[in-house]
TrEMBL record:
Keyword Cell inner membrane listed: no
Protein name listed in UniProt: WRKY domain-containing protein
Organism this protein belongs to: Rhododendron griersonianum
Membrane-spanning parts: none
Biased composition (Low complexity): 372-392
Length: 402
DNA sequence: CGATTTTGACCTGCGC
DNA sequence: GCGCAGGTCAAAATCG
């Protein structure tokens, strides 16, 4: 039973969000970012803080992966996720077990022997434990540029899919727990599915922040929703709509259980009209004033990415390109960079979006959302904060990338 | 020389 | 209990 919510697309693209329970892979194609209860690393904060902390591009090779802010040529997407559990394997690699260290994610059994208390927590966490955010986009490039640096640590053939699945770890920071899986859709190999898991424990470049914000918001939403759904308290569709009134097909939330997943499907053609229609609902007005922007921004970002990555976005994104949100001041000339920034800014800066999301969910759920909220909220909050900063600043422009 | 990618093996979780 | 599949590790190879 996965509940699916679909939000349709706004102007440019459609997002598919789905939450699934159980193994993500099977049910979902890929989920992406997960949000964890814990609060620690929200990407937001970190990201926010500094604007740029870009990684020093140190990595050379990763460039490819690294969407690098500076260049933004590629696609940018940044997810964030909290990771949580650690697998057992003994990996203790790097550092501190707890914090940031990258942790393996398989959700092991929660209880590994922990105390009862922990169990309790575990339970809670477990629930949300593996929220993931997946982004589906058409791209010929092997990977979407999301503003972060990634290191490939494995590749495996997934069952049912002739295309191998690649596993990447964020290398922008030593202990960053964020991981992502990249795989092409078996049905349509032009579609690249990127699943993010975990939350960055370090500042992110604007470009990355955008993605992170988006994903985190989605994840937050997802988690909240998923729990509710699980409880039967809420209707996923409702949630989806609420969240992204404008898009009916853009986002799919599947809350199945252990690993709720939010899938942003950018592979579909944007439908402005639809968007317009959807947008409006007065009910959602407040919170979602921005949604439209978000989608747009996102779409653009992807679009850009596509261009750079060689992916062909569905058609007319360009045509639709909408000016960046008001939040973001754009420069007179919408260059790619600008566009990108705008997109980034829009997303990132859209506190309203995330906040709205959170608020909406909360209200909808009647507070149920709260539970996770810590995480979610935090994330959201963080995001928001970040966004705020960013957005206000509109400074995103300052972002080197431009 | 250092960092990253590749690839096979290993471990864990889940279903039968 | 067994087998399957997913995910991760780590050694070797490759690249800048």
């Amino acid at each position: 039973m996965n509940t699916l919510v679909r939000i349709s697309g706004a102007s440019t693209y459609h997002i598919h969000v789905q939450i699934a329970e159980g193994r993500p892979e099977e049910k979902i194609q890929e989920a992406v970012g997960s949000v964890v209860p814990r609060q620690f690393m929200e990407l937001g904060p970190s990201a926010t803080t500094e604007t740029d902390d870009q990684p020093s591009n140190t990595t050379s090779s990763e460039e490819r992966t690294h969407s690098g802010s500076p260049h933004n040529h590629k696609n940018e997407m940044v997810p964030f996720v909290h990771h949580q559990d650690n697998k057992a394997k003994g990996i203790g690699r790097e550092e501190s077990p707890e914090s940031e260290g990258w942790v393996p994610n398989k959700a092991p059994k929660l209880s590994n022997g922990s105390s009862k208390t922990s169990i309790d927590q575990a339970t809670t966490e477990a629930t949300m434990r593996k929220a993931r955010v997946s982004v589906r986009a058409r791209s010929e490039a092997p990977m979407i540029t999301d503003g972060c640096q990634w290191r490939k640590y494995g590749q495996k053939m997934a069952k049912g899919n002739p295309c191998p699945r690649a596993y990447y770890r964020c290398t922008m920071a030593v202990g960053c727990p964020v991981r992502k899986q990249v795989q092409r859709c078996a049905e349509d190999r032009t579609i690249l599915i990127t699943t993010y898991e975990g939350t960055h424990n370090h500042p992110l470049p604007p470009a990355a922040m955008a993605m992170a914000s988006t994903t985190s918001a989605a994840a937050s939403m997802l988690l909240s929703g998923s729990m509710s759904s699980a409880d039967g308290l809420m209707n996923p569709n409702f949630l989806a709509r609420t969240i992204l009134p404008c898009s009916s097909s853009m986002a799919t939330i599947s809350a199945s259980a252990p690993f709720p997943t939010v899938t942003l499907d950018l592979t579909q053609n944007p439908n402005p009209l639809q968007f317009q229609r959807s947008v409006a609902p007065s009910q959602f007005q407040n919170p979602f004033q921005t949604p439209p922007q978000v989608p747009h921004a996102f779409a653009q970002t992807l679009y850009n990415q596509s261009k750079f990555s060689g992916l062909h976005v569905s058609q007319h994104l360009e045509a639709h390109q909408v000016p960046p949100p008001q939040l973001h001041h754009q420069q007179p000339q919408p260059s790619f960079a600008d566009t990108l920034s705008a997109a980034t800014a829009a997303i990132t800066a859209d506190p309203s979006f995330t906040a709205a999301l959170a608020a909406a969910i909360s209200s909808i759920m009647g507070g149920n959302a709260q539970p996770n909220s810590n995480n979610a909220t935090n994330n959201t909050a963080s995001t928001t904060t970040t966004n705020t900063t960013t957005s206000n600043g509109n400074k995103i422009g300052g972002f080197p990338g431009n």
